[in-house]
């Protein structure tokens, strides 16, 4: 019997504050529907300087270990996927290992490729375990980021922050991955980047969406080719993509998932056996199916709408949101996942939801994590955004959480709650 490997459990961490997206819109003189309907946003996490990528990653990993009874001595790899690291040399993973007092016998490293970094870490961990090199040990992969574009910028309403920690093992209670079916597409483009020394990213918005959709097409077609060969999907009365119970997408803003789903359907409609019997206009109209979007995508976006853009963690927030609501109903069913990182690379992969998904999500208790947040005014949000990154406020973290306390002689010192 082929070894099953995948995600056993997950946990999230978010900043302690958020701003309501309608409040932000009114403060900017914008009709709120432009942000709520146009972007699909409801709330936006506001990270202060003490809530950096290390603090969020350590908080999520700590919650994962505590709530799932993880034996740290059986963890052989710790990977942090991030594009908002705190040092050019010292890995966020090394900080997390120290803060959680994890064993010295594990492999630790960061993975960086814009928003794809978390998926890069997940695939490295999955293939390490599947190869047998892990010798029965598990891995922790943490996706941790802060999306920051600055006050009064075009990207301001698409900011956010948080972390998702994944336990990867041979007991994939949440999601057993279809190893070897992955499709990948990468290109050298300048659609989004953050030069060294800058806190805010530089983005060519319309071009970045175009790059996302192009890379999605290549990655999905690569997955579909392998899935067809293994009879995971087939050309039939339903399109191959429709044979996945749900499809999750990288979500820099929630409406991007709609664009992505339309593009994926278009790939099937253009490539299918009956494509010559329809016009390009008819295929484009069919690709926009509201029924397909509602059935396969919409239910995964609740957490993303309440937290905002979390770069590497965005896809895995969608996974958490989906399984939080539908873990029991989806048990035994196959879902698809599309990860995208600017610069750029996309990877489409699939997996089967585990029978223990609902139980594991109950242990994650995502709603309780969000309920602890404080809604702040736009004025308070602006004050926090103007704070220098190297002078965190003296705030006490909640029990089980971490925050940056000070930077002394270039050393970052953290405190635990």
Strand content: 15-25%
Separate helix tally: 14
Radius of gyration: 21 Å
Just name the CATH architecture: 3-Layer(aba) Sandwich
Structural class: alpha+beta
The CATH C-level name is Alpha Beta
**Low-pLDDT segments:** none
Main sheet attributes: strand count, strand direction, barrel closure: 10 strands, mixed
Compute the average pLDDT.
97
Shape: globular
Tally of domains: 1
Overview in brief:
InterPro entries: HMG_CoA_synt_C_dom, HMG_CoA_synth_N, Thiolase-like. The chain is of the alpha+beta class.
Please provide a written account of the structure.
Helix content is 37%, strand content 23%. Strand 4 (75-81), helix 4 and strand 5 form a beta-alpha-beta unit. It is globular. It is of the alpha+beta class and 417 residues long. Helix 1 (21-27) crosses helix 2 (32-39), helix 7 (255-271) packs across helix 8 and helix 11 (314-330) packs across helix 12 (357-364). The chain has one domain: 3-Layer(aba) Sandwich (Peroxisomal Thiolase, Chain A, domain 1).
Which features would summarize this protein structure in a list?
37% helix; Peroxisomal Thiolase, Chain A, domain 1; alpha+beta; globular; three-stranded mixed β-sheet; 14 helices; ten-stranded mixed β-sheet; 417 residues
Helix and strand topology:
Blueprint: E1 6-13, E2 17-20, H1 21-27, H2 32-39, E3 43-46, H3 53-68, E4 75-81, H4 92-99, E5 107-111, H5 117-130, E6 138-147, E7 160-169, E8 175-177, E9 183-186, E10 192-193, E11 202-203, H6 205-229, E12 246-249, H7 255-271, H8 280-287, H9 290-296, H10 302-307, H11 314-330, E13 334-341, E14 345-353, H12 357-364, H13 366-371, E15 374-376, H14 378-385, E16 402-408, E17 411-416
Parallel strand pairs: 2-15, 4-5, 4-6, 12-13
Antiparallel strand pairs: 1-7, 1-8, 2-3, 6-7, 8-14, 9-14, 10-11, 13-14, 16-17
Protein name: Hydroxymethylglutaryl-CoA synthase
GO molecular function: hydroxymethylglutaryl-CoA synthase activity
Keywords: Transferase
